[in-house]
Amino acid sequence: MTSPPLNRHGPESLHQQLTSRLRAEAERLGEGASIPSELDLVETHGISRTTVRRAIDTLVEEGVLVRRHGRGTFVATPRLGHTLDRVGAFVETFLAHGLEPESEVLSFQWKTDPAELPPELGADSTASLFLERLYRIEGEPRAFAYVYIPEPFGASISRADIEQHPSFQVIQERSGIMVHHARVTVCSRAANERTAQILDLPPGSPLLVLYRWIYTDDDKLLQYSGHYLPSEHFELTLEPELSEPHDVSYAFPLASSMLRLARRDPA
Q1: pTM exceeds cut of 0.70
Q2: How far apart (Å, rounded) are the C-alpha atoms in residues 182 and 212?
């Protein structure tokens, strides 16, 4: 990347100047392109590695660049929006963006020891089919999920079923039961070593985590799952609807600092 020297005496810091240049270079290169390594940028611009890393960190936080564990830094691709408005197979998120994901089933086993079953399945759960799935786009890891399918709904499901089709689809086809309602919890987590290795991310990378409970019309749990979504690739969207207009009337109490000021000023 050839460019004039950074201005060491200008109004902008070296970090700000390099950030602007890298942003412009990312726009020129386009999605998925690699940028020079930290050491190359240090040599090119004659600045410290700390300054280079700070500039790259800024653009990673903005979603302009992404780091690939052991491979380098690349221009980011647009995040996929996963909607929380409806319940369906997770693969639909990819299909809605014109992508056809590949799937790798990492685990497929029955868990019958109560100590191995998560409390999210409920106190009455005694056995559950457990599976883990890795989603890839053009060979690159994109999302990782685990799924529990309690007995008896998992009894007729084979590994071949799960390797060929989404578990959401298989459950309904095998059981003949349609999904009635669901509950979703969203949080953010740092990737632990195993999840980071599976998703080819540095340990500690930020993840959006989607926990989902799917129920029958008589409130039996059909499926409990957790989806680990790298924040560099996904964003969550929700378009809530109000059942009816309503007014909210509330007055915030004065903060303690404001009360102190009011006491000092009798006027």
Answers
A1: yes
A2: 7
